[in-house]
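Notes continue from the previous slide.

Worked example: a multi-chain complex. Inputs as given:
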Amino acid sequence: MERRPIYMVRLIAFLAVLSLVVAACGGGEEGEGTSVADDTGSGDTTESGDTGGDGAEGELTALFPDGTVRIGIANEVPYGYEGEDGEATGEAPELARAILGELGIDNIEATVVEFGSLIPGLLADQYDMIAAGMFINPERAEQVVFSDPDYCADTSFAVVEGNPHGLETFESFLENDAILGVLGGAVEETYAIETGIADGQISRFGDTPSLVDALTAGRIDAFALTGPTVQAQVSNLDGFEATEGFIPVIDGEEQLGCGAFAFHPDNQEFRDIFNAKLKEFQQDDKVLPIIEEFGFSEAAVNAAKDLTVEDLVG
Amino acid sequence: MLSGRQFGALLEGAWITVQIFVFAAVLGTILALIFGIMGLSEKRLLRAISRVYVEVARGASAIVLLFYAAFAIPIILGVRSGNTFVFVAGIIALGINMGGYGAEVVRTGIQSVPRGQTEATIALNLRVRDRLRHVILPQAFVVMIPPYGNLSIEVLKGTALVSLVGISDLTSEAQNLRVQQAIQDNRTPSLVIFGTALVIYFIFSQVLALFFRWLEKRIGGKWYGARG
């Protein structure tokens, strides 16, 4: 009987050790991470070579001394996805790669998360920038800092070949009983509701592959996404086609969707250096050749050329 | 059918799933034993601590814990996140969740041992430590193992949640292959992709089920003298 306390003491000791272990894990993580964020970059930035910079190059290698920038993507074709070789590719990662390459960053490390987790992941410093072609809007601009847009996209429907319902714009759905598939929470859902399409005619899905599966299974008659996405999806889908792209008009106003790169609010310096280089790319017409292969048109690139974040946040 | 590359991607994801499960299960089991035994303590404070832990760990959904660990903790602590951080965060969240359920399995398992057994050990003048180690726990383990096997299979499949915070587990790789349908010459039907993932999860859970069956037999045979 008198020995009971020993057992309890052991238990408590075990608990104490466990909490120390947990604390140590946390601490280790912290230590491991500080190299990039805190580095003031006094030393050598001579690593990058031939591009003959304007000083910005040195500043960026100072921010990322190991020459690696981590990007967050949402696995959306053609905006940002893991290619078959496991490397991040798509409109935004390729453009980011080209721009960062001229700034002396040779290595890009991509993390794939759900679209809705892109901003939380950025704020938690899981990666340094979002390269997912994310549309600039006021709600998002309150949480992150955007670069200026690099493209503006129209909207399009994927439909059965021949477009039997004659779907051209969101208004088309007011005249028939076709079912429209959208991504829950995406801009197309908002457009559909604000156009006045009956709720029974709108079907919500979680991701693009599910929309494609629903269309091929005949559960929906069309799905609405940005032009480049629809193009990419129908390109290898027999018996389906993309309708001509259009700019949705809500309450008499054209809803132009323009995508950009997003950065942590504490990382304004990175954003500014990146944005300056992006602007340079746009002036020199170097954007289109990079993103053309992903289905982006000259019109999409030119529409964004002279726009700034402020134009879209309003 | 899946191409070799696609199958390879799924297997790579499956390996991550196995790692997350094993680490989470080890953490969960340690927590389950600690808080399960604490829940039977004569000290009111220890019982209260155990109660609070169990209710919080069971009550908070695994996915909320996961998002909290992956997205909120780095901001609160001001640390830099990253793939390793999220990996560890996922394991800790799943482990805490499992520990909550496991603690109840441990507590009820010990309570299922008839009181007379404890009284007998007292009559034999065994120390508390020896009572637990040689008499109570061996009998309790036999009762605990089937529900613990259940719980483990549940946690194994629960690991799919980590795909939502950017860990490339089996589910995440399957989703990835679905996305890549758009860039292939010939689409691989979602049915095939998810079907394969389903089979892999099934094999894993069967391995677990067999392991617990074996454990049940072994411990039962070794400790449960009456069964011979």
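Summary box: The two ends of chain A are 76 Å apart (CA to CA). Confidence is low (pLDDT under 50) at residues 1-5, 23-53 of chain A.
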